Amino acid sequence: MRRPNHYSHAFTVSKSNVQSIFMVAVALIVGTFLIIAMLTTADNTHRFSSSVLHDWTKEAQSDWFIHLLGVENRYYLDAMQDTSTPSLTTTVIELATNMNLNDPRTFLGREIPGFSGFDNTLVIAGQGTDFTNMAMESPPPSEEHQYEQPETDGGEREGTVDDDPPEIADEEPIIHLLHSHSRESFLPEIEGDDPNNQEINIVQVGNYLADQFREYGLPVEVSDHDIQQKLNERGWDYSQSYEMSREILEEDIEKHDELEFFFDLHRDSVEREHSTATINEEVYARTFFVIGEDHPDYEQNLEMATEIHHRLEERWPGLSRGVMTSGGAGVDGVYNQDLSPNSMTIEFGGVDNTFEEVYRSADAVAEVIQEYIYEELER
C-alpha cells in the first residue's frame, strides 16, 4: 500500500508563500525608494506645508489626481478627453526617481551644465511663450564693467523721466520698488554691446513707474542703489545680488512701517522677437512675472502675480509673457518675496527694447497694479 505523497502538497504551499514574500519585498523596496525620494527632495528649512507636498508630487502624472477625484465625482472624468487610467508603473518610476518619462529635461538637467535653468515652472504661458524662451537671469557684468565706468552725458532721451519726480508730502510709502540687478540696461539706449550700464539702466524704469503710481495717489519708495557697486565694495559675487538687496529691503521696511507692496524690477535677457509686442499699432516691451517657490508661502505671491497677468491680458492682449515660478539648485528661488505676500519680480522687456517701449508697458502695469492695490486696501 502506497503512502500518501505529502511532499507535493507541501511544495505547492511553499511556492505560494514564496510568491507572497516576493510581492511584499517588491512593495517594501518601492516604498523605501518613495520615502527616500520624499526625504531628499524636502529642504531642511521648509516646514511641512503645501509647498513641500507640491515638491514631492510635481513630477507625478496629474491625470492620476484627476482619476482619484473622479472616483467620487464623475464630472472630473467627463471633462477629460482620455478617460483611460494612467500607467501605475510610469507613476511609480516618476515618484521614485524624479524623472518624468514625458519630459526629457528631467533626464538631462543633472548632466548638462546650465540646463537646470530650464527647470522653472511655467505657470501661465502668454502668447508665444514656452520653455525655450522663458525669463532668464541676466549674465553677470563682464570683468571690465564690474568697477567704475566712465560717466555718460546724462542727456535727456526720448521717454526719460524728470530727475526731480513729484513727491507726495506727509504720506508714508506703501509701495517699494527695488532693482536687485541695478545695471541691467537696454542696448538701443547705450553705447557698446555690454547691457550692464552704471548710469542708464533699469533704475530709470523704476523711477518712471514710481511717478505713475504717484499720479494715482499712491506713495512710493524707490531704492535706486547701485547694487553692483555695493557688491564690488564688499568683494561679493554677482550671485549674491539678492542678499545685498535684502539688506536694503529690511532697512526700508524698518524705516517705513506702512510698506506693503514690493516689486523688484528687472530687464530680461531674451531677444527682441520674444520681448516685444505690437498692440493697437503701438510697440510695447513685454512683461514677465517671476515668483520664487523656495519659501513656504509662495502661493500668496503667485496669486497676486496671476491676477495682475490676467488683468493685463484683458486690456492689452499679448503684453504679458506669462507667470513662472523659479526654485531649486542654481537659482535664488526666494527673491526676497518671503518678506511679504504682496511681493513679486517683474521683467520689463529685453536687451533690445527702448525706454519708450518699456515706459509704455510701465504705464499699463501701473494702471492695473494701482487698481489691484486699492481693492486690497479696501478689504
From TrEMBL:
<dbReference type="InterPro" id="IPR010897">
    <property type="entry name" value="Spore_II_P"/>
</dbReference>
<feature type="region of interest" description="Disordered">
    <location>
        <begin position="134"/>
        <end position="168"/>
    </location>
</feature>
<dbReference type="Pfam" id="PF07454">
    <property type="entry name" value="SpoIIP"/>
</dbReference>
<feature type="transmembrane region" description="Helical">
    <location>
        <begin position="21"/>
        <end position="42"/>
    </location>
</feature>
<keyword id="KW-0472">Membrane</keyword>
<protein>
    <submittedName>
        <fullName>Spore autolysin SpoIIP</fullName>
    </submittedName>
</protein>
<keyword id="KW-0812">Transmembrane</keyword>
<keyword id="KW-1133">Transmembrane helix</keyword>
<feature type="compositionally biased region" description="Basic and acidic residues">
    <location>
        <begin position="142"/>
        <end position="160"/>
    </location>
</feature>
